[in-house]
Amino acid sequence: MTEENGENAPGPCAEERRERPRARNWDAVTALIAAMIGVLALLVSGYTAYIQRQQVRAEVWPNLLIGFYDPDRSIGVHNKGVGPAIVRSVQVWVDGTPKRDWSGVLTALGVPTTGTTISTISDTVISPGERVLAIGMSDTEAYQRFRSELVGRVNTEICYCSTLGECWLHSDRAPNRKPGLTPIDQCPVVADDQSFSD
């Protein structure tokens, strides 16, 4: 008869280990939940920053319009937006030929240059709600002639940017001559002989 050795006999601890269900690793679960919350917070933060950027863009958006101001016998540029317009370049063509100033435009149109007042638009900042009279005339007859000649023969382009560096090109050079506003990455560099200085 042999005695059972303590090494071969199963002890109470071994049986408990076999019967006891496996314990959860709560530290790993907690770490996973914390990581998920962190990712969610990062997504919410990114979306909030995007929304704030859109709001800031809307608060500094400029919108330039070019039009006739008949009571003043003038052509003006009006900023109808809510932010300042930084004018980067202006171009004016008469019958497809670029002109450097209003004197060149009037001469090409056959309109007298006397009695005109001129305000510079190129490389200026036009505040929200501000209207700049680009050219005005003291003589009503000269203005009417100028106005009628402009419609069929003169084209303009104005490139301007917001304070955030977003830029737009206002142009009436399309075949239908209807003015259009196009967002662009940046204003093009215009050669000196093509740039309008007034």
Description:
Strands 3, 4, 6, 8, 9 and 10 form a six-stranded antiparallel β-sheet that branches. The chain has a four-stranded antiparallel β-sheet with strand order 1-2-7-5. By secondary structure, it is an alpha+beta fold. The mean pLDDT is 87. It contains four helices and ten strands; from the N terminus they run ααββββαβββαβββ. It is 32% helix and 28% strand. Strand 9 and strand 10 form a beta hairpin. It has helices at 12-19, 26-59, 102-109, 140-153; strands spanning 64-69, 74-79, 85-94, 97-99, 116-118, 125-126, 131-137, 154-161, 167-171, 180-184. The protein folds into two domains: 14-59; 64-184, no CATH class. The relative contact order is 0.16. It starts with 11 loop residues before the first helix and ends in a 14-residue tail after the last strand.
